Amino acid sequence: MAKKKGFGKFMGALTGSPYEKLLKQIEKGAKEFDGDDRSMSRLVKKMVREIKQTYSDENIDEEEHDLLMEELEDIDPEERELPKVGGDDDDYFDSDMPDAPKLASKAIDLDDLLSSKGDSFTSSYGKDEFEEFRQKMSQEFYAESDEAVAAGDHEKDIRTVHRTFVDDDADLAAVKRLISEESGLKTDDMQRQEDDEAAAAAQALADNTYSVDEDGTEWWQDDDGYWWFRPEGENDWLPYDE
Questions:
Q1: Please, are residues 91 and 100 in contact by the beta-carbon 8 Å criterion?
Q2: I need a surface site. Which of 29, 69, 75, 101 has the fewest CB within 10 A?
Q3: Per-residue pLDDT tens over the stretch 150-164
Q4: 90, pLDDT greater than 60
Q5: Angle at the Cα of 55 (from 49 to 61), degrees rounded to 5?
Q6: pLDDT-derived band of residue 179, with 50, 70 and 90 as boundaries?
Q7: DSSP string for residues in 21-37
Q8: How far is CA 39 from the centre of its chain?
Q9: How far from 15 is each of 54, 67, 126, CA to CA, in Å?
Q10: What is the mean pLDDT of residues 214-225?
């Protein structure tokens, strides 16, 4: 290995290359911090980072990278084995960082690294399933609404042919409500709505505009004088035609 190092120093001296500059920094630091293990250890860590960056920028080749790492190993007071491009050594910081990634053998484009491969799992299952469920619930919602209006046939019937959700937030809120009803859970909005309806029913009862008959059917008169009824166990009010 001494012969290989000597050749690298010789070539660096001839070219004045980045390799030579890094080598001179190592030799200068080795003399300056001789006997000061703490400062020498900091120098080794600093030079490891510089060597890696210089190699990443393609200013030194693999052989020069490994030669510089060997120079640092010679002066490292902790006698650690530093990572080599041409070897299978562990990362320099393995002792300080558990499960640290391995040193790549060459520069890697971050976009290529993060881009998904053609046969990889893209985690779209949950999103697709939710969209399918949302569409199904929306169709059922429209069908049930149309059936309710057809059953009442009130002169002020509400047409659902052109009914759409106001926006995505309203769409999501409707889906959440339907999911909550299916699962038996109540959202905060549903609880507030029930509380408001209970308060309104109490007020209507006091005003003689609300009552419950012997069958459990609720009756309610709106501000325009129209009567509505809701059979026991149902959620929707239906218009009453006399």
A1: yes
A2: 101
A3: 666 544 444 444 444
A4: no
A5: 140
A6: confident
A7: HHHHHHHHHHHHTTT-H
A8: 42
A9: 16, 16, 59
A10: 86
Helix spans in the chain (H): 2-15, 18-32, 37-56, 62-75, 110-114, 125-152, 168-183, 188-206
DSSP 220: E
Give the pairing of strands 218-221 and 210-212. Answer: antiparallel
**Using one digit for the tens of pLDDT, what is the confidence trace for 221-236?**
888 888 899 999 888 8
Q: What number of other Cβ atoms are within 10 A of residue 77's Cβ?
A: 15
Show Cβ contacts of residue 181 under 8 Å, excluding neighbours closer than 6 positions. none
Contact between 155 and 117 under an 8 Å Cβ cutoff? The reply is no
pLDDT of residue 152: 61
